[in-house]
Amino acid sequence: MPGIFLNARFIFSKIGAIVTPSFDNSTESFLIIVSSKGLAAEGASVVVNYSSSKEGADKVVSEITGKGGKAVAIQGSVANEVGVKRLFEETKKAFGQLDVLVNNAGVYQFAPIEDTTEELYSRIFNTNVLGVLLATREAVKLFGDNGGSVINIGSSVTEVFPATSTVYTATKGAVDAITKVLANELGPRKIRVNSLNPGMIETEGTHSAGFIGSDFQKGIEAQAPLRRIGQPQDITPIAVFLASEDSGWLTGETLVASGGQR
Ligand SMILES: NC(=O)c1ccc[n+]([C@@H]2O[C@H](COP(=O)([O-])OP(=O)(O)OC[C@H]3O[C@@H](n4cnc5c(N)ncnc54)[C@H](OP(=O)(O)O)[C@@H]3O)[C@@H](O)[C@H]2O)c1
C-alpha cells in the first residue's frame, strides 16, 4: 500500500477529478481523488501535514477515510529540525513506509529590495528551502527498497523573474537546484526527484497575498498563451503523473506548468 506525505492546504485543491495511476512497483491499483482541500487517495495511506490549518487537514483526512483510504493529520512546521523530526516520527508510527513525498509547504511575500530584511529572508527561506531539505532527509529514511518519488513544488518565477520577488524567487531557484542534486544523489536508491513549477494559481494563498484581481494577475493573463491564470485542477494531473510509475523514467526534471507563460 503506497504511503504519501503531503501538506494540507494543497495546491491541488478544489476539484473532483479522479484518476487511476499505479504507484511504485505494486500491482495494486487505486484511485486518487482530488478533493476540495487536497489530494486524497483510495487504497493509499496519506499523511496530511499542516502547520496552522487543522480544520483543512481534518477535512482532507475525513474525505480520504470516507472513501476507504487511510489518513492521519499531523501538525508540524517544516521550517525547523524539531518540527520535521517529530513529523516523520509520527509518520513512521502511523504507516511505517513512504513511497511519495510532496514538498508543497511554501510561503510567499514580495518586497522591493529597499524593504528586504533578514527577517523576511529567514522566514521564506526556512520554509521553502530548509523545509524541503529537512523533510526530504527524514522522508528518504522511510522509503523502501522500491524507492519512490519526491515532488518539489517550485514556481515558474524561476522563468519569469517578477520584480520585487527577489527572496521568493531565490528560494525557488534553490529548490530547482536541490531537485537536480538530489536526483543524482538518490537515483541509485530508485528515488526519483522532480520539480513541478506552477505559474500563478488561484489558491487561498494568492487570495490572501492580494494577487487575485491585481494588476499582476492581469499582466500574467495578457502575456500567457492561454490567457488565464491556473486553477488547482490544472496542476493535479501533473503531480499525479510525477508521483506514479508513469513518470518512472523522469528524474531531475523541472516541469513548468504555467499555461505556456515564460
Ligand atoms: N498559488 C500560486 O500561484 C503558486 C505558484 C507557484 C508555486 N506555488 C507554490 O505552491 C505551494 C503552495 O502554494 P499555495 O498557493 O497553495 O499556498 P497557500 O494557499 O498559502 O498554502 C500554503 C501551504 O503551506 C503550508 N505551510 C506554510 N508554512 C508551513 C510550514 N512552516 N510548515 C508546514 N506547512 C507550512 C500551509 O499550511 P497551514 O495552512 O497549515 O499553515 C499551507 O498548507 C508553495 O510552495 C508555493 O510557493 C504557488
Task: Walk me through what this model shows.
By secondary structure, the chain is α/β, with parallel strands linked by helices. It has a single domain (3-254), classed as 3-Layer(aba) Sandwich (Rossmann fold), CATH 3.40.50. The protein contains eight helices and ten strands. The chain has helices spanning 54-66, 81-95, 118-140, 157-160, 166-186, 204-208, 215-223, 232-243; strands at residues 3-7, 18-19, 32-34, 39-41, 45-50, 70-75, 100-103, 148-153, 191-198, 254-257. The strands form two sheets. A seven-stranded parallel sheet has the order 6-5-1-7-8-9-10, with helices on both faces. Strands 2-3-4 form a three-stranded antiparallel sheet, with helices on both faces. Helix 1 links the parallel strand 5 (45-50) and strand 6. The longest helix has 23 residues, at 118-140. It is globular. The protein starts with a strand and ends in a 5-residue tail after the last strand. The structure holds NADP nicotinamide-adenine-dinucleotide phosphate (NAP).
Report how far apart the termini are. Answer: 39 Å
- CATH class division: Alpha Beta
Secondary-structure arrangement, i.e. CATH architecture: 3-Layer(aba) Sandwich
Which blocks of ≥5 consecutive residues have pLDDT under 50?
8-42
Order of H and E elements: EEEEEHEHEHEHHEHHHE
Mean pLDDT: 83
Computed over alpha carbons, the radius of gyration is 17 Å
Ligands bound here?
Answer: NADP nicotinamide-adenine-dinucleotide phosphate
State the secondary-structure class: alpha/beta
Indicate the percent of residues in helices: 25-40%
Number of domains: 1
Could you tell me the strand content as a percent range?
Answer: 15-25%
By CATH, the superfamily comes out as: NAD(P)-binding Rossmann-like Domain
Number of strands: 10
